Structure formats: C-alpha cells, structure tokens
Amino acid sequence: QLQLQGSGSRLVKPSQTLSLTCTVSGGSISSGGYFWSWIRQPPGKGLEWIGHVYHTGDTYYNPTLKSRVTMSVDRSKNQFSLEMSSVTASDTAIYYCARARIPGAERTWFDPWGQGILVTVSS
Amino acid sequence: DIVMTQSPDSLAVSLGERATINCKSSLSVLYSSNRKNYLAWYQQKPGQPPKLLIFWASSRESGVPDRFSGSGSGTDFTLTISSLQAEDVAVYYCQQYYTTPLTFGGGTKVEIK
C-alpha cells in the first residue's frame, strides 16, 4: 500500500526558505508515471494546490506561487521535495504531499495523501 | 483560474437523514471530447488529510460507502449523503481538475443536528 510521509522544518523565520521532503513507501516514485504533489491548508481554512513534480523533474506550479516555489525529485531516496522562498506569516499552513491519481496527467485528483506537516512562519 | 464555490458553508442534519452539498464552478468542467466532468469530492475529518470520495463527478472510490453519491454536470455538482451516520461528521471539499491551477471549493462542514 502506497504511503507518503512528509518531513522538514516546522518553524521558519519570515523571509527565509521553507524546505519539506516527502518520502514515498510501498512503491517507487519512478513507476507508474504519476505526478507527485504538494497542497497546503492554512489553519482552519481551505485547500490550495502548490504544484506537481514528475519523476523526470518536470514541474507544474500554481502561478500564484510559481516565483517562490521549487520542486524536485530524488529517485535514489524515493523522495520528492518542496522549497518555498521569502516566506511570510501567510505561508503558515499544513503542507500535504500527495500523489496525483491519473498516470501521466497533471490534471487529476489526489490520492493518497500524506498526514501533513504544520509549518509556522514566525520570528 | 476556475473558482469553485460550495454551499452551504455548514449544515446540520439528523442521523439517518439526507445531507446535500453543492459545488459550482465558474467555468464548465465538462470536457467535450470524452464527456467527462473533471470534478472530485473529498472528506476531511479533524486532524486528518482529505480522503477521496468521488472522482469524475460521480464515480465512487473503492471502499467508500454507497450512501455517498455525486451528481451534476458542467458547472453544477452535488454530493449527497443519503443517510447520515455519526462518522460522516467532517468537512467536504470539491476540486476541479479540468485545468491548472487545480482548485478547491471552500468546504462544507457537516454536523449532527
């Protein structure tokens, strides 16, 4: 059964870079041709898609965040990562990693999801 | 961007009664070439990630109880819980995947009356 587990810094200072990693178990990040995704949820609020990364390194980002976001894949570790620069308090959120469900498709729903990491931006 | 608007923001339903959640997209999410609606529904319980319920607007995910059903086409969609159970208390979200950026509705909180 495919499982995703996020990890990374839970407290980030304003203007610094948020860094998160998602470790995939129960399957290879390179098989099946899926995109791997990041989605965030400010406390008590709704969901926002951040972007996808493919095992080849191809990416799709939400235009509202594109200038600050970088996603990458480490196939040797079966992991994918998110970096978000110049963070502010409005970037405080639970960050979820997830698999895009339709192979090879950037337009898809998400399943499964990782448990999520609460990242707080504060000095 | 396609804006997804859910209604109501919250609803309270008696156990065993029907719960109906609406989702409206600012543009049609019906793809003409395959006649599929690019819409999914999720359930999120406190402290948990969203759980997939429905995709292609009306296809139930494996293992999801059949009291959950999705309907609608184009810009107007509905998630129905035919007989509310205590374990269905959650926030429900719709999501369009017709185009990027992928977008979600604001959520509907379902409680027991």
Detailed description of the structure:
Chain A has 123 residues and is mainly β. Chain A contains no helices and 11 strands. Chain A is globular. In chain A, the strands form 2 sheets. In chain A, strands 2, 4, 5, 6, 9, 10 and 11 form a 7-stranded mixed sheet that branches. Chain A has strands spanning 3-8, 11-12, 18-25, 36-41, 48-53, 59-61, 69-74, 79-84, 93-100, 110-113, 117-121. Chain B has 113 residues and is mainly β. Chain B has strands spanning 4-7, 10-13, 19-25, 30-31, 36-37, 39-44, 51-55, 59-60, 68-73, 76-81, 90-96, 103-104, 108-112. In chain B, strands 2, 6, 7, 8, 11, 12 and 13 form a 7-stranded mixed sheet that branches. In chain B, strand 7 and strand 8 (59-60) form a beta hairpin. The relative contact order of chain B is 0.33. The mean pLDDT of chain B is 97. Chain A binds chain B through residues 46-49, 60, 62-64, 96, 98, 101, 106-111, 113-116, and chain B through 38, 40, 48-52, 55, 61, 93, 95, 97-107.
Give the key terms.
heterodimer, A: 123 residues, mainly beta, seven-stranded mixed sheet, four-stranded antiparallel sheet, 0% helix, B: 113 residues, 51% strand, globular
Describe this structure in a few short sentences:
The complex is a heterodimer of chains A (123) and B (113). By secondary structure, chain A is mainly beta. Chain A has strands at residues 3-8, 11-12, 18-25, 36-41, 48-53, 59-61, 69-74, 79-84, 93-100, 110-113, 117-121.
Instruction: From the alpha carbons, calculate the radius of gyration of chain A and give it in angstroms.
Output: 13 Å
Q: Which pair of chains forms the biggest interface, and how many residues does each contribute? A: A-B, 21 and 22 residues
- Total strand count of chain B, please? 13
Shape of chain B, please?
globular
Quaternary structure type = heterodimer
**Major sheet of chain B:** 7 strands, mixed
Shape of chain A: globular
What characterizes the major β-sheet of chain A? 7 strands, mixed
Q: Which sequence of SSEs, written as H and E, runs from N to C of chain A? A: EEEEEEEEEEE
Number of helices of chain A: 0
Mean pLDDT of chain B: 97
| Helix count, DSSP H or I runs of 4 or more residues of chain B | 0
Assign the structural class of chain B, choosing from mainly alpha, mainly beta, alpha/beta, alpha+beta, or little secondary structure: mainly beta
